[in-house]
Amino acid sequence: MRYVVLVTGPFNSGKSTFVSTLGGRFSVDALIRNPVKPTTTVFMDFGAIEHDGYRIILFGTPGQPKFRPFILGLMTLKLDAIILLVDCSDPVGLVMGRGFYQMVRRARPDVPLLVAANKSDRLTARKPEEVRRIVGVEEGVPVVSCVATDRKSALEVLEMALGLLK
Description:
The chain is 33% helix and 30% strand. The protein is of the alpha/beta class. The longest helix is centred in the middle third of the chain and has 17 residues, at 91-107.
């Protein structure tokens, strides 16, 4: 069996890292002038993982607002689940996450969605319930802590997202 999962969210939320941590990564990136993050995804990330007898295909979107038409295009694919990553340690990232959340819910209300509060290991990280309030996530949509650089954490998020299919 095969599942297709879209990983989306604002700039610098950890989408490429999440995809890479889980299943290797092919990405189209560009150099940028940013002291915190020297490259950014300008097309998409692609990863694949074999887990529990399933083949899971991961598509990661770019996070800049100028790529919204492309992101919406990716959302027309046959998707089994969507993981929205937000940087829960960055107030600006959380506010940007609200726009992404609204876009995803409008475009694909039929696809199971999970919000992953990434970078939850940082001192400034917000708890999942705070993330839910700031991003505007309705009850019934899971919001879970995540550390995208940690394979175990990323795998738990993926398993939770796929668990929504049952």
